[in-house]
Amino acid sequence: MSDTLHTPASLRARSEGAAAGLPGLLMAAERLAATILLGDHGRKRAGPGDAFWQFRAAQPGDPRRSIDWRQSARGDGHFVRETEWQAAQSVMIWVDDAASMRFSSGDRPSKLRRAQTLALALAVLTTRAGERAGLANLAEPPRGGKAQLIRIADALMEGGDVPDYGAPRPRVMPMGARAVFLSDFLGPVEPVADALTSAADRGVQGVLVQILDPEEEAFPYDGRTVFESMSGAVRFETLKAGHLREAYLDRLTKRRAALRDLCRRTGWQYQLHHTDASAEAALLPLYAALDRRR
């Protein structure tokens, strides 16, 4: 199996397959973002910016230069012209593309596909808000605009040889930016701790989203079972898989607790998402969490 992965024909086929999936990923992300935008009302607030928002009655302490004399001449009082709060910020996204993320049980999307869709939908929302989005593992700085969405989608769909488990190693994390890491986080915790600690040192806060397949939570295996890593590098056979359930679930619970503790210590937030739930169920709280950090 490992020999065929390295042949030119195989690499070309995977590249062409990724390119073919690009429009589908973009469309799915656009639709997902639209569900959030349709319900995104009442979020304006006053602050520095160029876009007009509303007039309000002048209050004690308002400087004279803030009064809109033309509007005030139309009524009996003085009115202040408020602009909508604007701040061009950066949202850096890391998507774990390791082999473990390709797992899917039944007809559910793989963890990787769900992570890619969420990441791109978040980039759509970010750029439409006039902010910048980027992938933390690439050297390019975050940018805004439609062209950036295409660059992000293209980078997310890139194939290549990957390890069984991924680890965030951000290359670009602007000071004060917001960040999102999407992974199953089933590999070593130490690289995750290093990445979040380094981010916190730069004033970067964000959300860690753990994406799991329902079977990874339930461990519905019993009797003779062959467990094999997605890359095929690790293989384990047992006649009593059910006897492993308690130890496995205990280890998974401890991993989740470790991630939550890490987020608490670094000022991040932890969110758990299962691939049998809708993508909207993950994107809405994720978008809200980032918005609260503006």
Provide a descriptive summary of the structure in words.
This protein is an alpha/beta fold. It contains 9 helices and 9 strands. It has 2 domains: 23-41 and 87-292, Rossmann fold (3-Layer(aba) Sandwich); 52-83, no CATH class. The chain has helices spanning 2-5, 8-38, 69-73, 111-128, 146-156, 190-201, 214-218, 245-266, 279-292; strands at residues 52-57, 79-83, 90-95, 132-135, 178-183, 205-212, 225-228, 235-238, 269-274. The longest helix is centred in the first third of the chain and has 31 residues, at 8-38. Residues 55-257 form the DUF58 domain.
Oligomer: single chain
Overall mean confidence score, pLDDT: 81
Please name the CATH architecture of the largest domain.
Answer: 3-Layer(aba) Sandwich
Query: How many separate helices?
Result: 9
Gross geometry: elongated
- The helical percent reads 40-55%
Main beta-sheet annotation = 5 strands, parallel
**Spans with pLDDT under 50 lasting ≥5 residues?**
1-20, 40-53
CATH topology (fold) name of the largest domain:
Rossmann fold
Structure class: alpha/beta
Percent of residues in beta strands: 15-25%
Give the terminus-to-terminus CA distance. Answer: 47 Å
What CATH first level of the largest domain would be assigned? Alpha Beta
Number of strands: 9
Succession of helices and strands: HHEHEEHEHEHEHEEHEH
Pfam family, one: DUF58
Protein name: MoxR-like ATPase
Domain DUF58: 55-257
